[in-house]
Design brief:
five-stranded mixed sheet; Helix Hairpins; OB fold (Dihydrolipoamide Acetyltransferase, E2P); globular; 5 domains; alpha+beta; 25 helices; binds 2-(butylsulfanyl)adenosine; seven-stranded antiparallel sheet
Length: 718
């Protein structure tokens, strides 16, 4: 087992060379894989959650600097996941009820009076009350037997929920085993699953870039993330949990609400730190106001405050009316809405070419915050159509000049909740979503079934340039050492490198470039010389690397190899694509060149269309041609069809000592094998290096042949 080191003593990620970073990344990936296995599969973690989080943060920091390390099997993208399955129904032994609401101070006063009357308290007897933020997430029931988590269920209709045990096991705030004293033989604990606002925003950005629908607010995204059939997806989503209640319980460890919260926290749960014990209505209302003021700055959404009678014997006496407890009430925050005029719709172009509309509003205060912009998501949203094709806002479209209701949905990003049609100016016209990119003028297309329209000017669009250049020089593309994101950013800003060809003409355009570079901050003579040497070394490049480097949507390394093998040489590829691009019609593409492309095993409509769209933009072709004048493209190697591993699927795992992962992969592919990232029944061989973890275990479970590196070498050499 790799020994876990504190990441605190490690050098800052900024100071690592690429090779050092890669070594560290590999070590951390293995370490995290081992911890995941112990945590998720064996329920026997060997480090604290905080130490584990540190490891993950370190990997994230390394990948932020070297995004090319973020391969699909990076620990930032995968977590030891269980197989997909449906959700079984779970009956709640104690129903999960809802809370009555109070919207004003007076209603809170009435609540306390009702309680006093019901309990027949003396005039000088004031019930202590626990005041808790009302978390805007989804409630969850967790059953523990002998301290072990045995089942997790959603609330459902309050009586029947869904079994989400495997999904919940991936939430780090939910202990798999209760700690501390007084653990009941069986108990059911409850609380709220939620997502941090910043995590929600980041998730939505990823969703949009991937052409997936965005979530409306953190609560929806928490719910959507929890109820995933593929537990791996849930595991990759940053879900969190606050415990605040319980259902069935044999032998209660405390006799007050605040005592129970303390016990929950000792048992290993996160209990909201803002919770307070209040004596008297004024203290409750002061809490409500304080929380209201703190709300916008909290990391998560809350929609009010919950007051609960502290003494549990009193809670029992008070009991329930219809579906809510008499011993608790939710004091809700006022809806955060305001009306204003939508002055203009702007289109922003994201780093990967997604066109995102933004509403520019006459400034208006919503819930204490001045709002001037609201997200409009995509063109369907503006038309009044939701991601699921159903009408939103009763199907009313949004137009420039409209008076709109602005809502801070769960106080994250302001949204347009509705249009005041009475105030629509007679001159207002339906919004025509642009079909060209506002940043570069290339045509912007929407793929079948996608909500996002994207710029096709991969090589020329300034909005995508830095991202694209970064991709162009990344490890699986041109792999130019010394040109990281920071350098690209700098060169771009200084106007030295705008498109890929500029990398190769830098020295020619400016004879003193190397010297000038050496004078720059962060460079010296050696690194400047090294950079130019690294550039020169790449003037000869394999066809598949070039194709991958073009940054065509959906053309990852695998598809680039398929294309390279099929066309063999750059000229053949370029010519065929130009013929196909010339044949684009709104009805489809009947050209032989297109059919030939589409017939390549592994290339479907979506990929074929994306490639042809790229070549349909003349400036992309011009940029490619300029590049081709500077470099030499090696024809593709055809796989040796007759090797002993051709047609076989192989997975490499653990740390390999005889060759790097990339080498192993390249050799295997050259011999006609398919290299996969995860082990399944279809896997023929698993080549296990040192410290192989869950993939090795899975191979053994499935009875897949496991080879050492030497076995593998013998196999392919024989
Ligand atoms: S106590 C018998 N405490 O609000 C009701 N609920 O409107 C027990 N919620 O379904 C619930 N924060 O999802 C309670 N601190 C808190 C809460 C809370 C959020 C949610 C919960 C519940 C809903 C009721």
């Amino acid at each position: 087992m790799p020994k876990s080191r504190s990441t605190k003593a490690l050098p800052a990620v900024d100071t690592l060379t690429k090779a050092q970073a890669k070594r560290e990344w590999r070590r951390l990936a293995l370490e995290i894989e081992a911890h995941d296995e112990r945590y998720y599969q064996k329920d026997a973690p060997t480090i604290s959650d905080a130490a584990y989080d540190d490891l993950r943060r370190r990997v994230e920091a390394i990948e932020a600097r070297f995004p090319e390390f973020a391969t699909p099997d990076s620990p930032t993208r995968t977590v030891g996941a269980a197989p997909a399955r449906g959700f079984a129904k779970v009956q709640h032994v104690v129903p999960m009820l809802s809370l009555g609401n109070a919207f004003s101070d007076d209603e809170v006063r009435e609540f306390v009076e009702r309680v006093r009357r019901f309990l027949k308290l003396d005039a000088d007897e004031h019930p202590a009350i626990v005041a808790e933020p009302k978390i805007d997430g989804l409630s969850l029931s967790l059953r523990y037997e002998n301290g072990e988590l045995v089942r997790a269920a959603t609330r459902g209709d309050g009586f029947t929920g869904e079994d989400v045990t495997e999904n919940v096991r991936t939430i780090r705030d939910v202990p798999h085993r209760l700690k501390g004293r007084k653990i009941p033989a069986a108990c059911e604990l409850r609380g709220e699953v939620y997502m941090l606002k910043q995590d929600f925003l980041a998730l939505n950005a990823r969703q949009l870039e991937a052409g997936e629908p965005a979530f409306a607010n953190p609560r929806n995204s928490a719910a959507g993330s929890l109820r995933q059939k593929d537990v791996g997806i849930t595991a990759s989503r940053p879900l969190k949990f606050f415990a605040y209640a319980w259902g069935e319980m044999e032998g209660r460890p405390a006799d007050t609400q605040h005592g129970m919260l303390r016990w929950l926290s000792e048992a290993g749960f996160t209990v909201n730190p803002l919770i307070e014990l209040c004596h008297g209505v004024e203290a409750m209302l002061a809490f409500y106001r304080r929380i209201g003021e703190a709300r916008a700055a909290l990391g998560y959404d809350i929609d009010g405050v919950v007051y609960k009678i502290d003494r549990l014997d009193w809670q029992e006496r008070l009991g329930f009316v219809s579906r809510s407890p008499r011993w608790a009430i939710a004091h809700k925050f006022a809806a955060e809405q305001a009306t204003t005029v939508l002055e203009k719709i702007d289109i922003q172009v994201g780093r990967t070419g997604a066109l995102t509309p933004v509403a520019r509003l006459a400034p208006v205060t919503v819930g204490g915050v001045v709002v001037q912009n609201a997200t409009l998501h995509n063109e369907d949203y503006i038309r009044g159509v939701g991601n699921d094709g159903q009408p939103i806002r009763d199907g009313v479209d949004i137009r420039e000049g409209d008076t709109v209701t602005v809502q801070r949905a769960g106080d994250v990003i302001p949204q347009i909740a509705g249009v005041v049609l009475d105030k629509r100016p007679a001159t207002a016209k339906p919004y025509a979503f642009p079909h060209t990119c506002p940043a570069c003028g290339s045509h912007a297309v929407r793929e079948n079934g996608e909500v996002v329209r994207r710029c096709t000017g991969a090589l020329i669009c300034p909005a995508q340039a830095v991202e694209h250049l970064r991709h162009f020089v990344s490890r699986l593309a041109f792999d130019i050492e010394g040109l990281g994101e920071k350098q690209i950013q700098q060169f771009y800003q200084d106007g030295l490198i705008r498109t890929p060809v500029d990398i190769f003409t830098l020295r020619r355009r400016d004879a003193d470039a190397e010297q000038k570079l050496a004078m720059r901050e962060g460079y010296g003579e050696v690194s400047a010389r090294n950079l130019f040497a690294a550039i020169d070394a790449r003037r000869k490049i394999e066809l598949h690397r070039l194709i991958f480097a073009l940054g065509i949507r959906h053309v990852g390394e695998g598809n680039a190899k398929l294309l390279a093998r099929h066309y063999g040489a750059i000229d053949a590829f370029r010519e065929a694509m130009l013929v196909a691009a010339a044949a684009i019609t709104p009805e489809g593409n009947a050209s032989e060149a297109y059919q030939d492309l589409n017939n390549i095993a592994g290339i479907g409509d979506i990929v074929a269309d994306a490639v042809v769209e790229f070549f349909a933009e003349p400036r992309n072709v011009a940029a490619l041609d300029a590049l081709l004048r500077e470099i030499e493209v090696r024809p593709a190697e055809q796989p040796r069809q007759t090797s002993r591993v051709s047609g076989r699927t192989v997975v490499f795992t653990g740390s390999l000592t005889k060759f790097t992962r990339d080498e192993a992969k390249a050799v295997a592919e050259r011999l006609g094998a398919k290299v996969a990232g995860s082990v399944s029944k279809k896997t023929d061989y698993v080549v296990a290096g040192e410290e192989a973890g869950s993939k090795l275990a899975r191979a053994r479970d499935l009875g897949v042949a496991v080879l050492t590196e030497d076995d593998w070498l013998k196999l392919i050499e024989g």
